[in-house]
């Protein structure tokens, strides 16, 4: 079942240690088949060097196992909640990467202070509120997804334009159209967090990039007239040739 997607999710998970986004087993990636209403996720607590594509677990959008001999990630219900509410995403990554966790521990957004950030995230990466005792005791993992969705709705943030969040005192979640892209966004988040940390140590001024620079860098990669790379909307015809 979903063998191609299992391979994609396996490959995405295996990239986490290579990109230095996880320590031990502290992370997971999933990917969804929207037509079937099923997603594939890393099994819980299995070391990356022991993982195989066949170990990936197939679950439904209620977080129930459909196929697999191993327990799915303990974060499965968070992934399920995000898939149910953010309809365009195809993959989700969760890590405990140290720079991202530093901002989560401080309950701070990662501010958009550089074009490195603006190329991927259209504005600050929000740090959503910490869960209260009742939310943790009743349905911790599901409520983790719920606080992300609720905060995006409260702030009017487009989850496709800002494809990541920090959960206070926990860590980063990122997403994208594919499992691979969700990992890419997780790495950009971590780099942006490190850049922001060092920049904030250097000044007390507001160092957010101006809106026009944010617009330029985000939309040249993601807008209707994007021209970054080789296959964007105007990537061929934007260059002047002699």
UniProtKB/TrEMBL annotation:
<dbReference type="InterPro" id="IPR001303">
    <property type="entry name" value="Aldolase_II/adducin_N"/>
</dbReference>
<keyword id="KW-0054">Arabinose catabolism</keyword>
<dbReference type="Pfam" id="PF00596">
    <property type="entry name" value="Aldolase_II"/>
</dbReference>
<dbReference type="InterPro" id="IPR050197">
    <property type="entry name" value="Aldolase_class_II_sugar_metab"/>
</dbReference>
<dbReference type="GO" id="GO:0016832">
    <property type="term" value="F:aldehyde-lyase activity"/>
</dbReference>
<keyword id="KW-0119">Carbohydrate metabolism</keyword>
<dbReference type="GO" id="GO:0046872">
    <property type="term" value="F:metal ion binding"/>
</dbReference>
<keyword id="KW-0479">Metal-binding</keyword>
<dbReference type="GO" id="GO:0019568">
    <property type="term" value="P:arabinose catabolic process"/>
</dbReference>
<keyword id="KW-0862">Zinc</keyword>
<comment type="function">
    <text>Involved in the degradation of L-arabinose. Catalyzes the interconversion of L-ribulose 5-phosphate (LRu5P) and D-xylulose 5-phosphate (D-Xu5P) via a retroaldol/aldol mechanism (carbon-carbon bond cleavage analogous to a class II aldolase reaction).</text>
</comment>
<keyword id="KW-0413">Isomerase</keyword>
<comment type="similarity">
    <text>Belongs to the aldolase class II family. AraD/FucA subfamily.</text>
</comment>
<dbReference type="InterPro" id="IPR036409">
    <property type="entry name" value="Aldolase_II/adducin_N_sf"/>
</dbReference>
<comment type="pathway">
    <text>Carbohydrate degradation; L-arabinose degradation via L-ribulose; D-xylulose 5-phosphate from L-arabinose (bacterial route): step 3/3.</text>
</comment>
<dbReference type="GO" id="GO:0008742">
    <property type="term" value="F:L-ribulose-phosphate 4-epimerase activity"/>
</dbReference>
<dbReference type="GO" id="GO:0005829">
    <property type="term" value="C:cytosol"/>
</dbReference>
<protein>
    <recommendedName>
        <fullName>L-ribulose-5-phosphate 4-epimerase</fullName>
        <ecNumber>5.1.3.4</ecNumber>
    </recommendedName>
</protein>
<feature type="domain" description="Class II aldolase/adducin N-terminal">
    <location>
        <begin position="7"/>
        <end position="197"/>
    </location>
</feature>
């Amino acid at each position: 079942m979903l063998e191609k997607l299992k391979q994609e999710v396996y490959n995405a998970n295996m990239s986490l240690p290579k990109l230095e986004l996880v320590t031990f087993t502290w992370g997971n990636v999933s990917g969804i088949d929207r037509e079937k209403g099923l997603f594939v996720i890393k099994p819980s607590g299995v070391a990356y060097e022991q993982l195989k594509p066949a170990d990936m677990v197939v679950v439904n959008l209620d977080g129930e196992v459909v196929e697999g001999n191993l327990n799915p990630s303990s974060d499965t219900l968070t992934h399920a909640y995000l898939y149910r509410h953010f309809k365009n995403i195809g993959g989700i990554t969760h890590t405990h990467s140290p720079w991202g966790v530093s901002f989560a521990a401080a309950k701070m957004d990662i501010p958009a202070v550089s074009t490195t950030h603006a190329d991927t995230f259209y504005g600050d990466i929000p740090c959503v509120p910490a869960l209260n005792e009742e939310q943790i005791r009743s349905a911790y993992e599901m409520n983790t997804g719920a606080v992300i969705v609720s905060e995006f709705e409260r702030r009017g943030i487009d989850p496709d334009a800002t494809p990541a969040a920090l959960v206070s005192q926990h860590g980063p979640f990122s997403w994208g159209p594919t499992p691979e892209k969700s990992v890419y966004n997780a790495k950009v988040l971590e780099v942006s967090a490190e850049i922001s940390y060092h920049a904030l140590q250097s000044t007390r001024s507001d160092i957010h990039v101006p809106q026009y620079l944010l617009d330029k860098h985000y939309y040249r990669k993601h807008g209707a007239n994007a021209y970054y790379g080789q296959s964007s909307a105007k990537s061929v015809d934007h260059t002047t040739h002699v």
